[in-house]
């Protein structure tokens, strides 16, 4: 049975056979605010994270997910949130099969046209992950578009660390010729913000690079799943993606004196024909510089909202004389940038100069 997206309430649930369940109740809203008003410019950010169900794989999916985005941007704005963060590949759904790609890829300017008006209407910056088509090269990327509250592009960040066979088949590795373009922070409400994408949230190097550039908030859309349906129609559920929302996310916030924001899908995604696409962990979280979770979601449609105010956090060590950034010894870390690594079994791994040509 094909899903009629016009009948689906963005607050409701869809069952696996394509029927729709109407539910007018709002999903859970979890907040951790420092006051009734959002932080002033240069003081901090009020960040909203949306997680929920959606569709994947074609234009109907994009239309439905965009409808949900409009609704949740309005909801986040009603709480005076200054940024709305969405999960990985939110616009088209995460589990994109090879035959889906041409149906769902869009240029950055096309996504700006779709989402920019929503940002402007609600006066809220939006982190919108999507499947990108580079109009110059024809290449495809797993990308995060960051728009300011006026709908202008602040950053179009392409995922640098691709996960699993499927991602490496679908998307290209970016920034091969100009790696300095990869981790560049930008300002929102006077606060330095950086973007990483899903699997990259498990690499401590990404946070540290941002920390060394003065970044105060790192945002990581993700698609951590229980299992997805492969191109042969088989649901692979022999493993569950590790829940890093309670480990790597707060740990890297603490060790880099920053806020970390993790936005995952919740529950299930379907294809527009009603078939299951994937099941997700729904473990979105916002962590503070003390490594504590300001807000954390269970696996249900949820809007997290937290005030991230750097000035509210004192040094974590006595007298403020110890600092994870200032006390580094860069001269000792040359192994981090070498193009080979010694593995525990004694073998040597050589990193390819161009990961797109990885054998």
Summarize the structure.
GO terms for molecular function: N-carbamoylputrescine amidase activity. The protein has 359 residues and is of the alpha/beta class. It has helices at residues 59-78, 101-104, 108-122, 164-170, 204-211, 248-256; strands at 13-14, 20-21, 28-32, 45-51, 54-55, 83-85, 125-133, 140-147, 153-158, 186-188, 191-195, 217-221, 225-229, 235-236, 259-263, 266-270, 276-281, 285-287, 293-296, 302-308, 340-342, 348-350.
Distance between the termini: 41 Å
Largest sheet: 7 strands, mixed
Strand order of the largest sheet: 3-20-4-6-7-8-9
- Structural category is alpha/beta
Taking pLDDT < 50 over at least 5 consecutive residues as the criterion, the unreliable ranges are 1-25
Rg for CA atoms: 20 Å
Percentage of residues assigned to helices: 10-25%
What is the number of beta strands?
Answer: 22
Shape: globular
Order of helices and strands: EEEEEHEHHEEEHEEHEEEHEEEEEEEE
Count of DSSP helices? 6
Give your account of this protein's structure.
GO terms for molecular function: N-carbamoylputrescine amidase activity. This is CN hydrolase domain-containing protein. Keywords: Hydrolase. It is a single chain. With 359 residues, the chain is of the alpha/beta class. Residues 1-25 have low confidence and may be disordered. It has 6 helices and 22 strands. The N and C termini lie far apart (41 Å). Helices cover 18% and strands 28% of the residues.
